[in-house]
Amino acid sequence: MLFSILTLWFVAGCGPRPSPATPLPTPHFTFATPPTPDHEGTAAAFLSAWERGDYAAMYNLLSPLSQAAITLEGFTQRYTDVAQAMTQTSVETRILSSLAQGTDAQVSYSVTFHTAVVGDIVSRQPIVMPLIYSKGRWGVSWSDGLIWSQLAGGDYLVMDYTRPARANIYDRNGHGLAVETNAVALGIIPGQITDEEKLLDALSNLLDRRRESIQSLYFGAQPDWYIPVGEASAEEVQSRLNYLSGIGGLQMSTIKTRYYPNGGIAPHVVGYTSFIPEDRLAEYRARGYRGDERVGMAGIEAWGEEYLAGKPGGRLNIYSPSGAFVGTLAQSQPQASQSITLTIDRDLQQAAQAALGELRGAIVILNPNTGEVLAMASNPAYDPNLFDPTNPNSIGLPTVLNDPHRPLLNRAAQGTYPPGSVFKIVTMAAALDSGTYTPDARYNCPAYWTELGPNFVKEDWTVKAGLPPHGEVTLQKALTVSCNPYFWHIGLTLFNADPNFLANEARAYGLGPATDIEQVAEADGVIPDAAWKEATLNETWSTGDGVNMATGQGYVLVTPLQIARMVSAVANGGTLYRPQLVLSISPPGGPPTLTFQPEVVGQLPTLPENLAAIQDALRNVTRRTVNGVYTGGTAWQAFKGLSIPVAGKTGTAEDPGSPNGLPHSWFVGYTVKNDPNKPDIAFAVVVENIGEGSEYAAPIARRIVEVYFFGRPYTLYPWESSFGVTAVPTETPSPLETPV
Question: Which of 193, 410, 463, 674 is the most buried (most CB within 10 A)?
Fold first, then answer.
């Protein structure tokens, strides 16, 4: 080659010079562009998007031909149908190998489906993903088999569920509070009544309701209306079927249901079940639900769903596009549901619900030495049986849901109220803990308090009651007689020493933050201080705020549950327990798998001798005399003649938002029976917008004590003509010795 080039050069150089030649064109070389080697990157991105559930990103990685064959909606539906049928909770993939040749490539991978019902489903053979290079990118040549090899050709999955029966909820003594059984919905058609007396007697006995309350349900109704009355167990109805079936106007419908006896015992605690809301279907299906089950939606029914419902089993079957059975991909056995036993005492709970009657309010009853909730009543209440749409009485559910008095609200744990004079327990403790006061520290309790000058004059309750001022009293006596001026004086003293001292004491007594009862929804209270007022109202914490707080007014808000726990700690000597609603969780016929023990969450900061002084002051609230000396206790009339020793505190809490201008009525306290065979109880009673604590809440508290210790009430309320029947209103008599 070198020789040839030299020869040509020599010839050109020695020969005659040619005429100028036309320039030769610049040479251009064209090579075929090889495919990009990133086919595995495309496959990895596709599988990663699958793991994230990003079906749009997956679809964007399909080849143009595959995108032409299926829409994004159809592609997404195919994956979501498989995920739903499997009860898929997540998916994992792993690339095993890859191979590319020209514009074609293959990537092999494994897939593991994590499911809620049949466990993990793992591909035993690699799944091969074909890819094609087209229009400047690699794309996945998609088919159904890329989800699972056996789904190629349009086969589909169906889960055949096996679900255990929902377990029951029991009270502490084994009485059913929520049971799976047959029940009978009872209703009245007014125009078909033939013997009203017989009808009312039968329903009153069957449902344990007063005749008048049943009669009021259909008063003024159209003759052909169906009026829901209530539900009873099928066994109860069957035992008196011959009698009931002959009563004109009575409609009975048997239903297979989640039955809540007596129209709901502790409905705000037990809760209710309902069909899964549409906006939560995906959530429940991912947990193994088919989607048409009834699930717990409130209270223990919701909190204990995983125990009460058990774990479903199932067979994940494959079917051809024509519906022919192909085979079973995976299967599992169901896990039995577990019953829940509550701390609630059925009889005491029913007594608490009945004690409130038609009044709006709440009652909480605790074992002060364990934190166990024996009763939690909120009124108005609701019938949880109405949430079953197969129950003919469910036509009454809209009335419940739209009731302006909010019967679904658990006032015991979610209602927030100013505590009024009940808070004086905390204020006395703060005074003693500050070291500034002793139980015997004396103060002249006037009718009007003027220590902040003429522009901040406050009036003692004795003025409105028409009683003389208390005069000189000790701190201990001031709590017993509920002397407002003394506590305003303490509020001022504490504020001047430390504006946050009283607020910190209240929190140490368990007020303000929620109690963390866990099993039912609860609200926080408000224990205001300088930081709170600045953040909430953009205002400065003032002397007047500290004074108002000392008597449980101003911005202070608490729940009845918080107050019941606080007074429990006073009763037991200073231990704050976390309130407990669940005793145990047990499988059918087996020992408990979970038991709940008392949980101490704090200690009161008060010295034992100071706490004893508070206890003595509270004990005198319910006694007229001690050693022949008149106590002035604000609740002695309500507890007159009761043989069970009770310590407590009345409260009359001003409510700025009161619709009728009346205050909330409080009584909190505990028994001091010290009977080793019958534990003492602590309780909080609040009645909304009705009047003085000693007039309403205290008599209700007495009834609770009577039922707990004697098995039934013995003392009528001042407003009753018979138990459960309100007397015709009469003019309120003038007060004699104490406020009500």
Answer: 410
**What is the pLDDT of the chain when averaged over all its residues?**
92
CA distance 549 to 528: 8
Q: Could you report the per-residue pLDDT of 71-122, keeping only the tens digit for each?
A: 999 999 999 999 999 999 999 999 999 999 999 999 999 999 999 999 999 9
Q: Which of 299, 297, 310 is nearest to 388 (CA)?
A: 297
Q: Residue 422 and residue 105: Cα distance in Å, rounded?
A: 79
For residue range 324-372, list pLDDT tens digits in order.
999 999 999 999 999 999 999 999 999 999 999 999 999 999 999 999 9
Q: Indicate the residue among 589, 612, 635 that finishes a domain.
A: 612
538: region left, alpha or beta (phi > 0 left; psi from -120 to 50 alpha) = left
pLDDT exceeds 80 at position 183? yes
Give residue for tokens 């829940």: 340
In this prediction, residue 2 carries a pLDDT of: 34
Looking at the structure, do residues 571 and 452 belong to the same domain, yes or no?
A: yes
Residues 257 and 363 placed together within one structural domain of the fold: no
pLDDT over 50 (residue 733): no
Specify whether 459 is located in the same domain as 361.
no
Enter the tokens of residue 659: 């619709």
- What does the block give as tokens for 81? 């149908």
pLDDT in tens, 282-293: 899 888 999 999
Count of beta carbons in the 10 Å neighbourhood of residue 420: 25
The domain total for the chain is 5
And the tokens for 443?
């103060």
User: Do the domain assignments include residue 32?
Assistant: no
**First vs last C-alpha separation in the chain:** 127
Is residue 430 located within the same domain as residue 571? yes
> Cα-Cα-Cα-Cα dihedral of 366, 367, 373, 377, to 10°?
-30
Task: Tell me the backbone φ, ψ of residue 438, rounded to 5 degrees.
Answer: -125, 165
Q: Which domain does 97 fall in, by range?
A: 39-150
The reply to whether 645 falls in a domain is yes
| Domain end among 203, 231, 264 | 264
The tokens of 672 are what? Answer: 């001091």
For tokens 């200073």, name the residue: 574
SS3 label, residue 116: coil
CB within 8 Å of 487: residues ≥ 6 apart: 424, 427, 428, 478, 550, 551
- Residue 420's pLDDT is 98
- Residues 452, 591 within the same domain: yes
Same domain flag for 527 and 640? no
User: Amino acid letter at 566?
Assistant: M
The alpha carbon torsion through 701, 706, 707, 712 (nearest 10 deg) reads -130
Indicate if the pLDDT at residue 735 is higher than 50. no
Window from 10-24, 165-179, 502-516 with minimum mean pLDDT: 10-24
Is the pLDDT score of 480 beyond 70? yes
Q: Do residues 69 and 191 both lie within one domain?
A: no
Listed residue (335, 490, 356) closest to 423, CA to CA:
490
DSSP state of 273: E
> What's 734's DSSP letter?
P
Cα torsion at 171, 172, 175, 180 (round to 10°)? 50
Find the CATH number of the domain harbouring 666: 3.30.450.330
**Helix (H) and strand (E) counts in the chain:** 26, 32
Q: Looking at the domain assignment, is residue 17 inside a domain?
A: no
Q: Tell me the C-alpha distance between 468 and 447, whole Å.
A: 7
Which CATH number do you get for residue 500? 3.40.710.10
Burial readout 289-326 (b: 16 or more C-beta within 10 A, e: otherwise): bbeeebbbbbbbbbbbbebbbbbbbbbbbbeeeeeeee
Q: How many CB atoms lie within 10 A of CB 694?
A: 28
pLDDT tens-place string over residues 158-176: 999 999 999 999 999 999 9
Collapse the DSSP code of 607 into the 3-class scheme (helix H, G, I; strand E, B; otherwise coil) and give the result.
Answer: coil
Burial (CB count within 10 angstroms: exposed 0-12, middle 13-18, buried 19+), residue 143: middle
